[in-house]
Write a sequence for this structure.
């Protein structure tokens, strides 16, 4: 079972355990991977390209990652708290919490998805 | 990559690897449908104006320009609040090209000829070599004006930079009235390879790869961008376009002399400072 996401450019290769990815956020033409422990890695790919890599490289980890709107991919296993009215999504790894923002509609859909898969 | 496959709205989520289409909140869908209907209605109304309405459009109306956001805009705007004089730097990677952006704050540049200016580390904020020196006669390449005095003429390179008072202009032209203006008001002018003109890449014949430096107009600021890797002028210019540069010309690359002073007063030198053999070496210098 493939468990690592490999992001490779002509100069660089990044190999990260998928379970350690907390979320991936879009930064214009780049993306920032936030790893458990708080380390942030910037990569020179757009979020859609990262989504495609996850699709291709991690077929057995489907449904682990969820694209939320245009600017966020989250690891579903790290979801800790959803507050729709405050438009707040809190992710949690072993040591840290990460508060993110998303649209009410997207958060409601995420909440329903998690409830459906309890 | 099929871009449509990965299209998503901010109101949607998608389970990656799942086969179902993006999950949409139904209330949001109806809201979206309502907005689309209103927009269509507005388009129909706006596309069918009466003749008299067409004639009422004023000639001084400014067209609305939609500017695409880019990743550096917020960072550059955050520099507006800094009062100190100094150079702020940002390292980034664009199209796999590692590069450094130097932003001189609260100071206007001038040109200097000769090495004397580079040793004034008490006052200098940022400096890089400006015009090239001809290999054959060791004179400055292209038109050059120093404090209103023309030192060189010629048009081997179509990019130019003029400094007149506080106004720095970077552009591309065969002939620029700014050359004459610089001579009349004690300004500065030099020529270099053009890289970007009005947001569009300018092709150059120079195909070799080297450390590249560019003088750029970015978000209304004049900044210097330098690569950490050897690049062709084409790839460098494309990277400048991709970060939102409006206009840019080349600065001397490779091992040319550079120096900057950070906001906290630390001086950092780059390039090859010795030997000092070209008396016509020129610099663009921001200083106190």
């Amino acid at each position: 079972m493939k468990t690592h996401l490999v992001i490779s450019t002509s100069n660089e290769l990044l190999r990260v355990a998928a379970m350690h990815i907390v979320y991936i956020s879009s930064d214009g033409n780049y993306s920032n991977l936030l790893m458990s422990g708080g380390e942030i890695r910037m990569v020179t790919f757009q979020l859609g390209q990262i989504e495609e890599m996850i699709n291709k490289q991690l077929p057995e980890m489907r449904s682990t990652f969820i694209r939320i709107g245009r600017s966020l991919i989250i690891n579903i296993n790290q979801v800790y708290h959803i507050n729709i009215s405050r438009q707040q999504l809190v992710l949690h790894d072993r040591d840290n919490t990460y508060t993110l923002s998303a649209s009410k509609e997207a958060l409601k859909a995420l909440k329903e998805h998690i409830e459906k898969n309890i | 990559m099929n871009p449509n496959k990965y299209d998503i709205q901010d109101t949607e989520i998608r389970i990656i690897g799942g086969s179902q289409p993006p999950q949409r909140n139904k209330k949001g869908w109806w809201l979206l449908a309502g907005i689309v209907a209103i927009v269509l209605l507005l388009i129909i109304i706006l596309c069918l104006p009466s003749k008299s309405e067409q004639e009422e459009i004023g000639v001084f109306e400014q067209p609305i320009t939609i500017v695409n956001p880019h990743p550096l805009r917020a960072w550059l705007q955050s520099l507006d609040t800094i009062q100190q004089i100094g150079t702020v730097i940002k390292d980034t990677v664009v199209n796999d090209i590692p590069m450094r952006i130097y932003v001189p704050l609260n100071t206007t540049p001038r040109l200097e000829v000769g090495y004397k200016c580079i040793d004034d580390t008490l006052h200098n904020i940022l400096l890089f070599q400006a015009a090239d020196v001809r290999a054959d006669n060791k004179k400055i390449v292209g038109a050059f004006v120093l404090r209103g005095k023309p030192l060189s003429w010629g048009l081997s390179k179509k990019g130019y930079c003029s400094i007149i008072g506080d106004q720095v202009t970077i552009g591309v032209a065969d002939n620029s009235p700014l050359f004459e203006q610089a001579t009349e008001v004690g300004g500065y002018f030099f020529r270099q390879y053009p890289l970007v003109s009005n947001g569009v890449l300018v092709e150059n014949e120079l195909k070799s790869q080297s450390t590249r430096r560019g003088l750029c107009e970015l978000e209304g600021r004049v900044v210097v961008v330098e690569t950490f890797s050897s690049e062709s002028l084409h790839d460098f210019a494309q990277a400048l376009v991709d970060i939102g540069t409006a206009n840019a010309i080349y600065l001397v690359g490779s091992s040319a002399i550079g120096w900057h002073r950070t906001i906290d007063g630390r001086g950092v030198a780059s390039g090859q400072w010795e030997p000092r053999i070209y008396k016509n070496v020129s610099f663009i210098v921001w200083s106190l």
